[in-house]
Amino acid sequence: MRYSKDHKTESRNKILSSALKLFSHKGFDNVSIDEIMVDAGLTRGAFYAHFKTKQVLYSEAILYTFPSEKQKISSTIDRKTYLKKLVSDYLQVDYSNPDVLPCPLAYLVTDVANREPEVRSAYAGSFESLNLKIMHLMSGSDTDINEETILAITSMMIGSVAISRTIPDADKAKLLNACRKVVFRLINAQ
Description:
Layout: H1 5-26, H2 33-40, H3 44-50, H4 54-64, H5 79-92, H6 104-107, H7 109-113, H8 117-138, H9 147-164, H10 169-189
Helix pairs in contact: 1-2, 1-4, 4-8, 5-10, 8-9, 9-10
């Protein structure tokens, strides 16, 4: 039986979503293909219709969160307001909720550092996509876009979420709030 293109895309997205969630919470070495497929509600055989290896899936799951294409934004929207909402949402998400897809940039940074060049390249691509998204949102401002500011914003967001996973809740809220305030100041300065 042949499946429609939509069915294949839906199955692939289920696998990527499950992989991202499981890899982010457990790391690459502690997740099996079987576990990913059970979480996705699919059979192990379906895995190989979409991915050659677990390493290929890992790379693609990292890229899954931040697609490379530019997000279309209405010309009537205030881009700085939209960017502030993006930052606030990123820094307020309850990543301890198992239904929330965690940011692989924050959750997998140390795991990726010890992986194959293809995986590190996927991580770098995802980081670049987030930078480009922020740059695109900042392009509507009255002043020139400062690449250093964009890199600082992205790095603070990722770093604060990564660190927040390791500290008590009271300190976590303080850290994320401090990051949000500094990022807003950087956005307003542009």
